[in-house]
Backbone:
C-alpha cells in the first residue's frame, strides 16, 4: 500500500514532503550531513546524547533566525547531555557566517545540501523547492524518537515549550 501524500504549506501553497513520516516511538533514522568544517556527520556521532533536531528551510530567513536563536538560549538550560542540531540546506560556509553574526554557540548547524539525506530520512524534504520543512524532533539517548512536530505552515514557529519539555524529559 502506498504511503499517503504528506504536505506542509509554504507561504500558503501546499508542498509535498518526500520521505517517510517519523513518529514518536520510532527508532531515529540515520542521516549523513556535513558540519561547518565540511566533515561528514551522522546520528551515531551523537550516541548517548539526547538530540533536539531542528529542521529549518534557511537560517537566512526571519523565522529560522528567530527559531534557532531561541533554541540557542534554551540549550543553556538543557544540560551537557543534550545537543541541539539545526539542519538546513544552507551551505556550511553560510551557516558558519550566520552563527558568528548571530552569536549562536549552543546550536550546531549542519548542512543537508549534498544528499538531502536528513530531509528524506525525516520526511521533511520539499523536493520542489529543495528546502527542508520546519520540524522539531527529540531523540533520546537510545535513539528513540520521543517528540515530533511537523509545523503545518513553514513560516510559523514551532512549539518551543513542548520541544524543550520533551528534551528535559528525555534527559532525566
Residues:
Amino acid at each position: 500500500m502506498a504511503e499517503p501524500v504528506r504536505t506542509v504549506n509554504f507561504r500558503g501553497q501546499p508542498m509535498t514532503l518526500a520521505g517517510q513520516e517519523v513518529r514518536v516511538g520510532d527508532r531515529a533514522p540515520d542521516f549523513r550531513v556535513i558540519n561547518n568544517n565540511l566533515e561528514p556527520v551522522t546520528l551515531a556521532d551523537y550516541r548517548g546524547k539526547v538530540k533536539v533536531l531542528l529542521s529549518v528551510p534557511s537560517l537566512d530567513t526571519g523565522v529560522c533566525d528567530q527559531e534557532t536563536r531561541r533554541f540557542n538560549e534554551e540549550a543553556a538550560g538543557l544540560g551537557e547531555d543534550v545537543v541541539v542540531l539545526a539542519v538546513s540546506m544552507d551551505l556550511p560556509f553560510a551557516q558558519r557566517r550566520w552563527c558568528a553574526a548571530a552569536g549562536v554557540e549552543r546550536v550546531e548547524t549542519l548542512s543537508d545540501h549534498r544528499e538531502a539525506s536528513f530531509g528524506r530520512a525525516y520526511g521533511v524534504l520539499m523536493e520542489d523547492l529543495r528546502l527542508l520543512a520546519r520540524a522539531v524532533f527529540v531523540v533520546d539517548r537510545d535513539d528513540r524518537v520521543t517528540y515530533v512536530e511537523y509545523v503545518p505552515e513553514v513560516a510559523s514557529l514551532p512549539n518551543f515549550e513542548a520541544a524543550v519539555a520533551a528534551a528535559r524529559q528525555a534527559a532525566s
About this structure: The first strand starts at residue 7 and ends at 10. The CA atoms of residues 31 and 118 lie 5 Å apart. The helical segments are 62-75, 92-102, 117-121, 160-171. The chain has one domain: 26-171.
